[in-house]
Amino acid sequence: KELGKSVLDRMTAIAKIRQQLEEHSIEIPLHIFGSLDTITTPLYYISGADIFDGLSWLRFVFDDGQTHYINTYGPEKFGIHENSDGVWIRSVYQNYNYFGRLKINLEHYQSTGDFTKLGVKSEFFQSAFNDLNEKMGGVL
User: Fold this and answer.
1) Interhelix angle for 40-47 vs 84-112, to 10°?
2) Fewer CB within 10 Å, N side or C side of the chain?
3) Is residue 58 predicted with pLDDT exceeding 90?
4) Which residue has the higher pLDDT, 1 or 53?
5) How many Cα atoms occupy the beta-carbon half-sphere of 22 within 13 Å?
6) Cβ atoms within 10 Å of 79's Cβ, excluding its own
7) What is the mean pLDDT of residues 79-105?
């Protein structure tokens, strides 16, 4: 959140940092803390960030591009008789698998530039990238 007040402001800051690093031939990864989720991770990745971490994956369940609160998703997905510990363990496992797939999807996007590789929210991500590119003067 230190990079700007809106997600677009943060995406722009990341893109500017990435541009400056590339202009000076500095090859280091950009690490963004607090963005390990279904929306900001791809947005910041297409802006130029490389490494993501955060704690939201312990509080929420990620499923097919959606983010759900564990305490409400768990009973519906795993059944109302599943105990809270079981829901949490299954949710963490599901998130781990989700991030494995997201990594592959981001790599496919990186190698092809094809936003459809980013899954069900690909149109949203492409639109966000277009807004970023416009804000950056069309240089991306």
Assistant:
1) 20
2) N
3) no
4) 53
5) 9
6) 10
7) 93
- Per residue in 97-116, pLDDT (tens digit) is 999 999 999 999 999 999 99
Cα–Cα distance for residue pair 103/55, rounded to 1 Å: 17
Helix (H, G, I), strand (E, B) or coil at 82: coil
Answer yes or no: are the C-beta atoms of 49 and 14 closer than 8 Å.
yes
Say if pTM beats, i.e. exceeds, 0.85: yes
According to DSSP, residue 115 is labeled G
Residue 58 CB coordination number (10 Å) = 12
Long-range CB pairs of 91-94 (<8 Å, 24+ gap) are 91/61, 92/57, 92/58, 94/61, 94/62, 94/63
